[in-house]
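The material for today's practical consists of a large collection of protein records. There is nothing in a record beyond a sequence line and a structure line. Backbone structure tokens are a discrete shorthand for how the chain folds in space. Nothing more is needed to start thinking about how sequence determines fold. As an example, a complete record with its sequence and its structure tokens follows.
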Amino acid sequence: MSLQVIVGAGPVGTATARLLADQGEQVRIITRRGSGPEHPAIERVAADATDPDRLTALTTGAAALYNCANPAYHRWPTDWPPLAAGLLTAAERTGAVLTVTGNLYGYGPVDGPMTEQTPAASRSAKAQVRVRMWQEALDAHRAGRLRATEVRASDFVGAGANSIPNVLVLPRVFAGRRAFVPADLDAPHSWTYVGDVARTLVAAASDERAWGRAWHVPTAPAVSLRELARRAAAIAGAPTPKLSRLPVPVVRLGGLFDPTVRELREVLYQFDRPFLLDSTAAQETFGIRPTPLDVALRETLESSTPAGAGAGAGAGAGR
């Protein structure tokens, strides 16, 4: 049993903490408010991870330090740099493997499937924040100051995921209502299951072959939002889904009142064309096979619907 320290208790941090705890590891999860999943092997600590001294003290003796944090979307340029610096310092001081949860923003618009060798060509503000974070960690790794790896995922599906499917599509599909989405409804898109992110993080943290580079989370074959909605409706026993594309001017108007919607405009290109993640490298290296999409959709249904709440919930939960 070794100590594993996780910063962040969102869907990925929670899934990673539970996975490690179920494997018999000692887990310490750090958030500003001391939140996190309840488990006998999980210690929840309230602390500010931007404080390198405090984070170092909490990470001393740990085998790995997982960055599963996610500041408010519109505050990435201000909140990420001090948090990333705190994590780098703690990893360097303690020797814990810095294992970062990343995304695909850095690649920008791409024609064809994205691999780990796809150039980081995006010039968007949010993408550049994440690119700099990884480059600083990679530079420190190459200089021998620490050991680091990054695990990159596409848009999440699964319990608790704050993504377009989970927020805008699936709740309305399960309820038999029309969903309005700022996306090409028929463009194939890679959807990454939260549980597979956790599995890949844990594998990368403990495998020397993973250190010093980025990896794509094993992800099921891409499907369009329309197909995803159709599968979700079938699982839930809901009517045939009704989807409509939200016009870009409406999104822009919404951005006047909601900072998250305003920031979303920067990455809408991901939903205007095929958005394909190639996860061959991680699948072959770690032996992780992506969870079938229907399993992720069923989990989403079960996590969002109280037990016994109607025929659709019963069908979706297999009761």
About this structure: The CA atoms of residues 86 and 302 lie 36 Å apart. The longest helix spans residues 76-94. Residues 306-319 have pLDDT under 50 and may be disordered. The radius of gyration is 19 Å.
